[in-house]
Write a structure and sequence with these properties.
The protein is α/β, with parallel strands linked by helices. It is 49% helix and 16% strand. Bound molecules: guanosine-5'-diphosphate (GDP) and magnesium ion.
């Protein structure tokens, strides 16, 4: 149910009195907006002196930031895209979805499995590569992720593949060794290919609330990010968490994951998203 309909249980809209603002506040907190975005929204409604669906929607659109920009294209190929995130967030699935999107744009893709930590991680990505019919660079368990990323850039250059998607490891976002490992991946591809990485996307699971906010903060301080991919929006009524995420890190939302199939990826549209959140 949209926020506005839920709000309708408390009042019908109109002049913003203290009770109404309190109802809005409760509702936004319940919807995972987080304290900062909730307070800002309530303040703005209070200042406007009026609580209605259109105002709420407008405020949310602004909080969500710009529409998702399409994937970068390097002037000198290959374009290198690194995908970060904690295990289970939908990182590998998102890599496959992004590969599919690149193919739809007529671009050639190579997938690289730089998750050398998790058993079966490389095999899982290999299955996607076979399904999509794209070349694959795998990892050996316990191997060096930066070496895999380097090999992937080499392979793409030799084979004239335009874009490389690198699936990285994400066991624990608080793990200092992981931070160093990810920094090294960034450093190594940057040395091999000027301007790389051209994208560094962080995958976050919309269903885990404040946990995703902490992950976003931790990754954003470890590596420079170019965007967020927020997954599992099909499985949550708490779309407000997306507002909290965007607020936690100054990184634009680029794509939304809306299901388990390879087609279930949308370019982020803040107007559409806010409308759904508030009105549907
Ligand atoms: N419902 C839903 N499930 C998703 C989405 N993205 C990924 N998943 C599922 O989440 C689980 C973990 O995905 P995976 O890509 O292996 O995560 P990783 O460990 O981060 O690489 C799998 O069962 C996926 O099918 C999504 O947008 N919606
Ligand atoms: Mg994975």
């Amino acid at each position: 149910m949209g926020l506005w309909k839920k709000l309708g249980r408390f009042f019908a809209g109109g002049a913003a009195d203290a009770a109404q603002l309190e109802a809005v506040q409760r509702l936004l907190l319940e919807a995972d907006f987080g304290v900062a975005a909730t307070n800002e929204t309530v303040e703005r409604l209070s200042r406007a002196g009026h609580v209605d669906a259109a105002s709420l929607e407008r405020i949310v659109v602004e909080q969500l930031g710009p529409p998702g920009a399409p994937l970068a294209r390097a002037s000198a190929p290959p374009t290198i895209m690194l995908i970060f995130g904690v295990n289970g967030t939908g990182k590998t699935t998102s890599v496959a979805k992004l590969a599919k999107r690149l193919q739809t744009e007529g671009r050639t893709v190579l997938l690289a499995a730089a998750d050398t930590f998790r058993a079966g991680a490389s095999e899982q990505l290999k299955i996607w590569a076979d399904r999509l019919g794209v070349p694959f660079v795998g990892a050996t368990r316990g191997g060096d992720p930066a070496a895999v990323a380097f090999d992937a850039v080499e392979a793409a250059t030799t084979r004239r593949v335009e874009s490389v998607l690198v699936d990285t490891a994400g066991r624990l976002h608080t793990d200092e060794r992981l931070r160093e490992e990810l920094k090294k991946v960034v450093r190594v591809v940057g040395k091999r290919q000027p301007g790389a990485p051209h994208e560094s996307l962080l995958v976050l699971d919309a269903t885990v609330g404040q946990n995703a906010v902490r992950q976003a903060e931790a990754f954003a301080t470890a590596v420079p990010l170019t965007g967020l991919v927020i997954t599992k929006l099909d499985g949550t009524a708490k779309g407000g968490g997306v507002v909290a995420l965007r607020r936690a890190v100054p990184v634009p939302i680029r794509f939304l994951g809306t299901g388990e199939s390879v087609e279930d990826l949308e370019l982020f549209d803040p107007v559409k998203f806010a409308h759904r959140l508030v009105n549907e």
